[in-house]
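Propose amino acids for all 296 sites.
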């Protein structure tokens, strides 16, 4: 992105000064301004981790499960590789819809057009996925070539920083899928999220990335829960816990159905809705909804 890396005042001070806005305040947002009945509080989650750990599968399957239960779900795809679209069973748009939401600003930056805020952006520029999930996309690179996605990415960044205070979206569950590694987490690409699911497979590289993400989550005072994937034995989760410094909040078993759905290019929940991996994700969703997720 053509924005300035920052010191004090946020990661992109020049960017925010140019577009005449500011990042979201460090508060939970309008969700916490309301007393929700038991089990009805909308989830605000971002899924992070090293590449290949299964972030998009977890995020996309969770979104579909929650939408099937009658929730309004907004999936926030922060990756320019359309992994979340695949895991949702959707098709990424050929060009980023948010390109229509921005106009040039000073300093090589882009700002939202007048009259476009977070609610209108979701209404006009999100796309529909199966089970009624709405998807707001940072800007996938099209299959036919690479086009600049900076305008769309800057629009996306401004929109997500308005989501915590968007009263019209207060009852919506939001699930974000970050690219691999800690960069987006460091630069506050999930201000809407009060819960961070750190997806980690039982390898040293994945666990070391997860440890860094856990540290970042603690710094921003988000709830953080490691989710260990590709588990073949109890020792896998225990080994990850030793490296990360937190026990697993959930484990997802190694499942051939995950690999097969990826080979076929279809969503896991459509390919094998009763497989062990989907059942484990459903259990995680149940506990998140009930407020009973804890590291264990």
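Proposal:
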């Amino acid at each position: 992105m053509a924005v300035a890396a920052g010191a004090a005042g946020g990661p992109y001070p020049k960017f925010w000064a140019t577009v005449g806005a500011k990042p979201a305040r460090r508060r939970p947002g309008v969700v916490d301004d309301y007393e929700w009945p038991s089990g009805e509080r909308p989830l605000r989650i971002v899924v992070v981790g090293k590449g290949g750990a299964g972030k998009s599968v977890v995020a996309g399957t969770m979104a579909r499960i929650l939408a099937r239960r009658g929730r309004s779900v907004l999936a926030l795809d922060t990756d320019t590789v359309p992994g979340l679209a695949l895991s949702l069973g959707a098709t990424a748009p050929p060009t980023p819809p948010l390109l229509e939401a921005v106009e040039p600003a000073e300093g090589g930056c882009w700002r939202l057009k007048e009259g476009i805020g977070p609610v209108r952006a979701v209404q006009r520029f999100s796309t529909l996925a199966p089970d009624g999930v709405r998807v707001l996309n940072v800007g996938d690179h099209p299959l036919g070539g690479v086009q600049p996605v900076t305008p769309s990415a800057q629009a996306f960044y401004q929109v997500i920083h308005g989501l915590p205070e968007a009263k019209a979206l207060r009852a919506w569950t939001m699930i974000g899928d970050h690219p691999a590694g800690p960069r987006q987490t460091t630069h506050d690409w999930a201000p809407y999220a009060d819960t961070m699911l750190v997806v980690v497979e039982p390898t040293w590289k994945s666990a070391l990335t997860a440890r860094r993400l856990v540290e970042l989550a603690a710094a921003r005072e988000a709830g953080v829960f490691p989710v260990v994937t590709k588990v073949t034995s109890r020792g896998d989760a225990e080994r990850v816990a030793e490296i990360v410094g937190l026990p697993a909040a959930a484990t997802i078993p190694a499942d051939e159905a995950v690999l097969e759905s990826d080979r076929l290019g279809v969503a896991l929940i459509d390919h094998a809705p009763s497989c062990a991996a989907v059942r484990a994700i459903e259990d995680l969703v149940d506990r998140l909804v009930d407020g009973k997720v804890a590291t264990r």
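The chain has one domain: 40-289. The CA atoms of residues 208 and 244 lie 7 Å apart.
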